[in-house]
Amino acid sequence: QVQLVESGGGLVQPGGSVRLSCAASGRFFRVNTMGWYRQAPGNERELVAAITRAGTTSYSDSVKGRFTISRDNAKNTVYLQMDSLKPEDTAVYYCNGKGLRWGSAEFDAWGQGTQVTVSS
After folding, report:
1. Nearest Cα to 117, choosing from 42, 6, 4, 8?
2. Sequence-separated (6 or more) residues with CB below 8 Å from residue 89
3. Do β-strands 30-39 and 91-100 pair in parallel, antiparallel, or remain unpaired?
């Protein structure tokens, strides 16, 4: 089993900042790509940002220049620094991790989600 546990989030004012964290635990050999997705009410889940084990990052156009994804491979943890937040960033944010279990079977795991609400 691979578990992803998110922390951070909450209520923040427009223009403010928040940092999300997500730690992977359980029985696995290696976590490769980690990412953050979000889903607002009535919308599809969308990719916000992703980072490879080597540190290559990608962002959706809507958050580029405002959000920063990073990771600590030793801790199997990924972070999302969210700055200059807008009301349209309000959503449930989900962590995703893809990697290899012992024995080379792949896994694709999700966190439980954390609410980020941007409102004055």
Report:
1. 8
2. 38, 63, 82, 116, 118
3. antiparallel
Q: Which amino acid is at 55?
A: G
What is the distance between the alpha carbons of residues 65 and 11, in angstroms, rounded to a whole number? 21
Taking the alpha carbons at both ends of the chain, their separation in whole angstroms is 40
Burial 20-43 (b: 16+ CB within 10 A, else e): bbbbbeeebeebebbbbbbeeeee
pLDDT value at residue 104: 79
107 neighbors 42 (Cβ within 8 angstroms): no
Residues in the chain: 120
How far apart are alpha carbons 75 and 97 in whole angstroms?
Answer: 13
Over residues 11-51, the pLDDT tens digits come to 999 999 999 999 999 999 999 999 999 999 999 999 999 99
CA 72 and chain centroid, separation = 13
State how far the Cα of 34 lies from the Cα of 81, in Å rounded to an integer: 14
The CA distance from 70 to 19, in Å, is 11
